[in-house]
Amino acid sequence: MSRSTMSPTPARSHRAARLAAAIAGGALLAVAVPAMASAHVTVSPDELIAGDHGVLTFSFSHGCENSPTTSLRITMPEGLASVSPTLDGDWTIDVERGDDGLVSAVTYTALSPVPTDLRGAVSMGVGLDEESPASLAFPVEQRCVDGATEWTQIAENGEDPHSLDAPAPVVTVDAATGSGHGDHPDAADGESPAAPAAESAGGTILGAGGLVAGLAALVVSVLAYRRKP
């Protein structure tokens, strides 16, 4: 008995081709979306406490239309009590001050242009006022060998920042609690709050151990009884 090999019909071939194209397109989209998301100039951390101090790091992983980055000019928002740019051997730093003597802008110029396939970063220490606004936007002008990109867009109320083409890095400011760092009122009497739970757990373990020992003794007794003539 001979067997015949069936060839796929044209309809099936077209469906398979469309499926393969859809999978390939989805894979390309999955790669492209993170790449677009990482194209922005970002700030870390993106949350601080009013009246506190912190170090902000501004990073990027691309240039202007694939042109290497030469400098970043970061404008300071109102609500900062102090700004101290971090000295870095890869960048020169130019500080601008307003009439009040406070830092108004900082320009970091790369000693060598940063290629588009490498991540670049600059940082600065900042001090916040007690009455800093709920959010601090840091407009950034990214200058490149060819061209420049201004990351200055700020989302309106209810607008998704991710929908903006060139959003400015934003730091959220939380209100100070006033209780101070590291306060633990529950432990003021010198007793650890977890002590009762630990004691309860220890009692449970000891009780379980006693029950197991009792069952073991019962089994031994039964076996010994059965072995008697």
UniProtKB/TrEMBL annotation:
Region (Disordered) location? 173-200
Q: Where is the composition biased (Low complexity)?
A: 190-200
What keywords were assigned to this record?
Answer: Membrane, Signal, Transmembrane, Transmembrane helix
Q: Which Pfam families does UniProt cross-reference here?
A: DUF1775 (PF07987)
**InterPro entries from the xrefs?**
YcnI-copper_dom, YcnI-like_sf
List the transmembrane segments: 205-225
Listed CDD domains: YcnI_like
Signal peptide limits: 1-37
Question: Where does the source fall among the domains of life?
Answer: Bacteria
The family database entries (Gene3D superfamilies) matched by this protein are listed as:
Uncharacterised protein YcnI-like PF07987, DUF1775
Name of the protein: YcnI family protein
Species this protein is from: Microbacterium croceum
